[in-house]
Amino acid sequence: MARDLPVRQFRKPVGLIKQENGRLDPALLRAIKPFGHLYKPAAASWQAMKQAAKKDGVILKPTSAFDAYRPYTIQRSVFMQRYTAEHIEGASVRTFEGRLYYLKRGLAPLASPGTSNHGWGCAVDIWGVTAEGRLEWLLANYERFGWSHELQSEPWHIRYNLGDDLPLGVV
Ligand SMILES: [Zn+2]
User: Fold this and answer.
1) Residue 100 phi/psi, 5° resolution?
2) How many Å apart are CA 95 and CA 140, to the nearest integer?
3) Ligand 1 centroid – CA 143 distance (Å)
4) What percent of the chain has pLDDT over 70?
């Protein structure tokens, strides 16, 4: 799928400055539909965006409950399933706790524990993003809700860039 995704600079919410990635105060999070949690402004925007998509016949949801806000313990356990400290020639690498980790063959890359935007409650992995017009709908609409992509290589992964602010028309 050769397509240019808009990748914007992440604006970390001021409300999260004293927080630790993946260990957010639950009072800062809000449940989203159909499952999962996000940092409150991102959650409000998500709900509005999801409704707008639904009006256009497009269903938006995370791939699983932990593919929105992802607690540190979950990020760590998935990371340990996908990466190994044993050297793998040519593998993609991550640094975690001062060591190099190698991505096992055939598995999707993941941010090191403590560094993912999922841990800030500001990212969602979109279920079936390349099917049923979802990506096309997002590209046409998500920026007005404050979302963009983080990496060209991960079309399913979108993140909220308005920090503590809400998009116009969302309360
Ligand atoms: Zn993601």
Assistant:
1) -85, 140
2) 35
3) 17
4) 99
For residue 156, the CA-to-ligand 1 centroid distance in Å is: 7
- Centroid of ligand 1 to alpha carbon of 88 (angstroms): 24
Mean pLDDT, range 122-149, rounded to an integer: 97
User: What spacing in Å lies between the alpha carbon of 149 and ligand 1's midpoint?
Assistant: 10
**Its pTM surpasses 0.85:** yes
pLDDT, residue 2, reads: 54
Across the chain, mean pLDDT equals 95
pLDDT per residue as tens digits for the range 16-53: 999 999 999 999 999 999 999 999 999 999 999 999 99
What separation in angstroms does the CA of 74 have from each of 11, 80, 119, 170?
24, 10, 10, 31
How far, in Å, is the centroid of ligand 1 from the Cα of 158? 7
Query: What residue ranges in the chain does DSSP mark as E strands?
Result: 29-31, 37-39, 83-84, 93-96, 99-103, 123-125, 147-149, 157-160
How many angstroms separate the alpha carbon of residue 118 from the centre of ligand 1? 6
Distance CA 56, CA 95 (A): 42
Quote the ligand 1 centre to 109 CA distance (angstroms).
10
